[in-house]
Amino acid sequence: MGLDWIVNTNCGCAGVCPHILSIFRIDSHLGSLSRLIDFCSSILVTTVQAMTSQPIYLLDSVEDLCHRSPQERRDAAENRSRLLETAQELFAQHGVAAVHMAAIAEEAGVGKGTLYRRFANKAELCMSLMDQQFSEFQEHVLTQLRTMTNEQTPFLEQLQWFLCELADFIQRHIPLLAEIQREGVLGATETTAPHFIWQQMTVRGLLRAARGKGELAAYFDIELLAEMFLAPLTAPYWQYLVEVRGFTKERLCAGLRTLVHTLLAQSSQPG
């Protein structure tokens, strides 16, 4: 159990490959086989990093590997690093929302064309800035879920823990995450953002495991439940709940735990 049930339930060929292929068919954002290959590679990298605790780096896209010389790849990597460092500095000084892509390119000393070849929009740039945080968070979650499973912690209790850990992660990185989701990354590039797919896979995996252990009644719609649990944990909506509606993180987490507990209570009722 532990990590195995997440991998077997959600990450095996029977689970992920049809999902990826359906994405490739319907999502014009991918647009080419190379984008599909890049997406598959990013899923693999994220999963292996979380399982092995070792960083893994892809050189670049499929086109880069096929057509660029070693010097061109080095130059591209240096430009990417300079752009990310510059963006991070400008975000820290002025706030993520106030910094435009043109300002990042100018401050980094690169052309706008170079910037947009690397990052289609500010959301993609923010995604890259979050790479390490995503990886560390996933490693932390998988380690803890493995421990909890080995200790025979009920899966719905593990789900409560995960949702609150995710809430804390969102709260700590709200400016970048809000920009990522506000720019439409989850509308178009959710399919190319392994971290967000991993969130859904984790929630679905915990719900399926709970149903398998009799903690969750068979009549519950797991796909829909997963979406409903994660809906308030999209960064722009979370930001609205906290900054506009005035809910504290603690109150929101308590509400999420109550929702999970309600599932358990309903599943325990006879008939």
TrEMBL record:
<feature type="domain" description="HTH tetR-type">
    <location>
        <begin position="77"/>
        <end position="137"/>
    </location>
</feature>
<dbReference type="InterPro" id="IPR050109">
    <property type="entry name" value="HTH-type_TetR-like_transc_reg"/>
</dbReference>
<dbReference type="InterPro" id="IPR036271">
    <property type="entry name" value="Tet_transcr_reg_TetR-rel_C_sf"/>
</dbReference>
<dbReference type="GO" id="GO:0003700">
    <property type="term" value="F:DNA-binding transcription factor activity"/>
</dbReference>
<dbReference type="Pfam" id="PF00440">
    <property type="entry name" value="TetR_N"/>
</dbReference>
<keyword id="KW-0238">DNA-binding</keyword>
<dbReference type="GO" id="GO:0000976">
    <property type="term" value="F:transcription cis-regulatory region binding"/>
</dbReference>
<feature type="DNA-binding region" description="H-T-H motif">
    <location>
        <begin position="100"/>
        <end position="119"/>
    </location>
</feature>
<dbReference type="InterPro" id="IPR009057">
    <property type="entry name" value="Homeodomain-like_sf"/>
</dbReference>
<dbReference type="InterPro" id="IPR001647">
    <property type="entry name" value="HTH_TetR"/>
</dbReference>
<protein>
    <submittedName>
        <fullName>TetR/AcrR family transcriptional regulator</fullName>
    </submittedName>
</protein>
